[in-house]
Amino acid sequence: KGTRVMVDPNGPEAGAAFLAENKDKEGVITLASGLQYKILEEGPGMEHPTVSSPCECHYAGRLLDGSEFDSSYKRGSPTTFAPNQVIKGWTEAMQLMVVGDKWEMYIPMEMAYGPSGKPPKIPGGATLIFIMEIIKIKGDKVAKQMVFPTWTADELALWLDKDEAACQSWRAGRSEKWEAGDEKLRASYPTREELDAFLDKGCESSKNKSLWKRTRTAKKKAAAPSASTASAPAKLTKDTAPALLTKALYTFKEP
Q: What are the boundaries of the region Disordered (predicted)?
C-alpha cells in the first residue's frame, strides 16, 4: 500500500484549495489581487481612509483550521493603525471600507506573511481569515462613490419634519442672498434656473446622506439582540432539564 501524504491544514496547498472553493460562495467578493472578502455589516460611513490614515479597528484573526492567533475583541479594546502599516491584504481592504463596516477577509499568503509566516503563531504559507471592523478614521479621508438606493416608505419616514424644515431654511437663505445680488452666488449661478438646480441638488444630497446613515444604524440596532433576549433564561424542557440539574449539582457539590 502507498503512503498517504498528509497535507498541512494551514499550508499553501490547503490555502489555494480553500480560496478556489471560497470564491464561489454566496456574498464573497474576489478582487484582482486575489483578496477575498464578505460584508458582514455595512456601516453608515461615507468616507474611506487614505493609505496613511490611522484607524481605530477591532479584529480577530484565525488560521484555516480555526485556531485563533490574535483578537482585539478578547483584549477588550480596539487597536489603532494605518493601512500602510499592516499586511498587504489589510492595506487594500481598509481603503475600501468605511466607518461601521464589518468584513470577513480571506487573505492569500502572498498578501499576508508569505512563505516564512510569522512564527510561532502563523506558519509559513498560511492563508489567513480575519474579521475586521473600522470604528473610527483618525486621519485624512476620501469620499466614497455613493450610489443611493430608492428609499422605501419606512426608510423615508426617517427623514423628519425638522430635517425638511432645516433644508428649506437653507434653501430660502441662499435664494434671498442671490436675489440681493450676492456676487459669489451670482457668479456661480447666473440664472435662476441654475440656482434652483443647485438648491435642488443640495437638498437631495443632504436627504440621501442622512437616510443612508440612519437606515444603516437602524438595521444594526434591529439586528442586535435585545437585553431581554440576551438575559432570558434557558427554557426548561424534558431534554434540557437533566443537563441543567447535573450542572446545578456540580456547582453546589462540596469540595
A: 207-235
